[in-house]
Amino acid sequence: MERLCLDCGKAVRGRTDKKFCDDNCRNSYNNHLKNENGLFFKRINLILKKNRTLLAQFNPDGKIKVSKKKMLTAGFNFDYHTHTYYTQNGKKYIFCYEFGYLALSDEELLLVKREEKLL
């Protein structure tokens, strides 16, 4: 039975477990697989990076009130964040890495920066 290269479809010669005709085809095939999966993660990481940048830009001092409309106008995407934090009294902080916000109302946010705890 003739084996065919997974990338270009040419006949493969050599070991019985060989899948590619040469190193170029092997690299091309694996790069293609990585690229398909990587585009999804790259798109999400770009959104998270933009959100973090905007939170840092609007909050240079660690805590400030900002309108939700101002964040939306700047391009903030409220659907993407890295984690949430609930306080003991039930307040929900939404974070994008170390920067986050607390919804004070439907139109106003409190931007915060989480302090790193040293071990």
Features:
119 residues; alpha+beta; five-stranded antiparallel sheet; 2 helices; 5 strands; 36% helix; rod-shaped; DUF2116 family Zn-ribbon domain-containing protein
Structure overview:
The protein is of the alpha+beta class and 119 residues long. The chain has one domain (23-113). It is built from 2 helices and 5 strands. It has helices at 23-58, 68-74; strands at residues 63-67, 83-86, 92-96, 99-103, 108-113. A 5-stranded antiparallel sheet has the order 1-5-4-3-2. The model has no long low-confidence stretch (mean pLDDT 91). It comes from Pedobacter petrophilus. This is DUF2116 family Zn-ribbon domain-containing protein.
Rg of Cα set: 24 Å
Anisotropy-based shape: rod-shaped
Termini separation: 61 Å
Q: Could you say how many structural domains there are in total?
A: 1
Given helix and strand content, the structural type is alpha+beta
Number of strands: 5
**Poorly predicted regions:** none
Average predicted confidence as pLDDT: 91
Helix segment tally: 2
User: What is the percentage of strand-forming residues?
Assistant: 15-25%
Percent of residues in helices: 25-40%
Q: Record the strand order, biggest sheet.
A: 1-5-4-3-2
Please give the largest β-sheet.
Answer: 5 strands, antiparallel
Helix and strand element order: HEHEEEE
Protein name: DUF2116 family Zn-ribbon domain-containing protein
